[in-house]
Structures are given as C-alpha cells and as structure tokens.
Amino acid sequence: MSFLYRSALVITRLPPYNDWAIRQDGAGAELQAHLEQDRRTVYLGPEVNDRPSLEALVEDLWQDIFKMELESWVQDPAAWPAPLTRDLFNEWFDVDLIDTVVDLVPEEPLTQAEIDAEDLDYALHHCGWCGLDLGPDGSRAVGFTLPNRELFAFFEGRVLHVPARDGEAIPGIMSRGGSEAAAAEQDLLFRACSSRCEKLIRKHVPRGLQRVQQQIERATRG
Questions:
Q1: Which of 77, 87, 93, 202 has the most CB atoms in a 10 Å sphere around its CB?
Q2: d(CA 49, CA 202)
Q3: CA distance 124 to 189
Q4: How many CB atoms lie within 10 A of CB 211?
Q5: Backbone torsions φ then ψ of 205, nearest 5 degrees
C-alpha cells in the first residue's frame, strides 16, 4: 500500500455532454445506454489540505479537463462547442474532490510511461512470436515498413501490439522518426528467437497491421 501525494477530481458527465456526444456519433439508444453506464472519470491533481480548496483546484484545471473529455470523443476541435467557458463546464460536468488517494497495488505500473517501459523491455528481450526469453546472442530483428507511417505516429518509440494469431497480439517496437531504422524504412521491429519464428512473424504481421490501420482510421474519423 502506498499513499499518493495527489488529490482526485471525480468528473461526472451530465446529460448536456451526453447529448452532444450522441449528436457527434449519430447513434441512438445503444450509445445513450453506454454513456449512462460510463459516466465518470478520475483525474489526479495536486495534493490539497482542506475541502474548501475544491473551487480553486477546479478553477486551475477545468480547461484541461474539458478539452480531454471532448477529445476522448471527437479529436477535431472544430466539432467542439465554442467558446469553452467555465459556465458551460459547470453545465456539462459535476465535480467531486477526493482528498486522500492510496495505491493498493504499488507493485503494478501506475502511469502510461511505466507501462510503456515494461512493454519495451519485454519486446526487446522476448521473441515476438513464441515469447521465449532471449539471451544476449542468437536473436534476430524482423523489420516491417508501415503502409502509412504518419498514421502510426502515436506509437513512435513505443510498443505496437499487432494481432497475429488466434486473437493474440504480438509486440513490435516502432522506430522513432529520424532514427537509422526509420531512415531504412524499418518502421516496426520485432525480435525472433529462430528462423521459424521469423517466418511466422513475416507471414502474419502484414495482415495484422491492416487491421490495426483500419482501427486507427475509424478512431480518427470518429
């Protein structure tokens, strides 16, 4: 158990936000039911010592929260309501403050950066296909050129999990822009323990990349 020096702002989405989201998506009852079930998000802010500081904390953070809530649904700011005001924020969201935040599983990664670091370590030291723990020698790199590198920019320097077999995804590392690997059009790199695993990676990854690209394109359009 670990005490976190943070406060927690619990954001509850109110009907005006849900109505806006439904209009953007063009869906009906199914989406409305989803929004009613998934109504809240927790944002961690600076530690506070007294309850009356809620107003001051929201005043400092409401714009960031508002933009993140809108971006989680529609990434294009042109589709957002304008102008974004504090009064509109109050109409669309209810805010509650949790003074004490305790992490009951401190051994687990807490941030996206920590998860990314674990994923990178695994992808560097395990066979992408069979998961064998790779020693210092004998492994081989398997590189792919992405069909549209710009579309995958979010994953630069991170692990991209590519669906490849029986619904399972295998981890590949996307090279950073400007790196030697990127210059050589080795956009996505996997480690393989043997020629057999290399062949299987080369066989199954291209189709998996097509599926990932389609998912990203749908999310971008949404």
A1: 93
A2: 56
A3: 9
A4: 13
A5: -65, -45
**109: pLDDT confidence band, cut at 50, 70 and 90?**
confident
Task: Render 79-119 in DSSP notation, one character per residue.
Answer: GS-SS--HHHHHHHEEEEEE--EEES-TTS--SHHHHHHHH
| Total Cβ atoms within 10 A of residue 123 | 21
In angstroms, the CA 85 to CA 104 distance is 37
Q: How far apart are CA 53 and CA 19, in angstroms?
A: 31
Compute CA 46 distance to the chain's CA centroid, rounded to the nearest angstrom. 22
Predicted TM-score (pTM) of the model is 0.66
How many helices and strands (H and E) does the chain possess? 7, 9
pLDDT at residue number 52 = 54
> Per-residue pLDDT tens for 13-65?
999 998 888 887 655 555 566 666 668 899 999 887 765 578 888 999 999 99
Which residue reads 């935040």 in tokens? 101
Are 145 and 186 contacting, i.e. CB atoms less than 8 angstroms apart? yes
The alpha carbon dihedral of 47, 49, 50, 55 has a sign of: negative
pLDDT reading at 199 higher than 90: yes
First-to-last C-alpha distance (Å) of the chain: 39
* Token pair belonging to 183: 């210059």
Residue 86: pLDDT over 60: yes
Query: Quick check: helix, strand or coil at residue 162?
Result: strand
Instruction: Give CA separation, 23 vs 39, 109, 149, in Å.
Output: 17, 36, 32
CA-based torsion, 120, 192, 169, 151: positive or negative? positive
